[in-house]
Design brief:
Elements: H1 9-25, H2 33-49, H3 55-71, H4 78-88, H5 97-120, H6 127-137, H7 144-153, H8 160-166, H9 171-198
GO molecular function: ceramide 1-phosphate binding; ceramide 1-phosphate transfer activity
Family: Belongs to the GLTP family.
Domain Glycolipid transfer protein: 31-169
């Protein structure tokens, strides 16, 4: 993680999602797998910065983003990811690109809610923002054992100051980039949901 010391990962994340948002707002609305998976890969270090509470999410997220990056070599757009799996009747199969896309989307949504809560919450503790983000996005899909382990891990979260130091940001610069990600990621997340819902695939599995 040494490269985080000289770079500004939050700025890169915000810029990448602004580009995806611009694509969604354009006439084509065809989001390509390659830029999508690249933008998602920039989010990966954030899970690592949150410590043991989100270790499950980091490992799962990184593996699934990698799968989408590999898929981008032969599949052009997110629409095609779903349509290919529908043709093969493999949408809900473990390891399918569609299933992985849905899981990656949840990771993006968790970070969006986390940033939203960090912006709204005073003080140096991340426990409140992280707990709310987990409860809203991941908890409904997890069994009791994982929820219990995450709750225990919440006590090992870094402070907000420690997180910002890892990300090479101060309070005001981080707030700007977090707000930028929150705004740009929302339509991207909605776009992915819409791809599933318009094909009557559902998003709660």
């Amino acid at each position: 993680m040494g490269d985080l010391e000289t770079e500004k990962p939050l700025k890169k994340i915000a810029e990448a999602f602004k580009e995806l948002e611009a694509t969604i707002n354009s006439q084509t609305q065809e989001v390509e797998v390659a830029p999508f998976s690249h933008a998602c890969s920039l989010v990966s270090p954030l899970f690592g910065c949150l410590g043991i509470a989100f270790k499950f999410a980091e490992m799962d997220y990184v593996a699934k983003v990698h799968d989408l990056a590999e898929a981008s070599k032969s599949i052009g757009t997110l629409q095609s990811v779903l349509d290919n799996d529908i043709e093969r009747n493999s949408v809900r199969k473990a390891g399918s690109h569609s299933r992985n896309l849905l899981r990656v989307k949840r990771g993006l949504d968790m970070v969006r809610v986390l940033f939203e809560q960090i912006i709204l919450t005073d003080g140096n503790s991340l426990k409140g923002p992280a707990s709310k983000a987990y409860a809203q996005v991941f908890a409904p899909h997890h069994g009791w054992a994982i929820r219990k382990a995450v709750a225990a891990g919440m006590y090992a979260l870094p402070t907000k100051a420690q997180l910002l130091k890892k990300l090479n940001e101060d309070e005001s610069s981080a707030r700007i980039q977090m707000q930028s990600y929150v705004a740009a990621s929302a339509p991207v997340i909605m776009h992915v949901d819409k791809l599933f819902l318009t094909r009557e695939l559902g998003i709660d599995w």
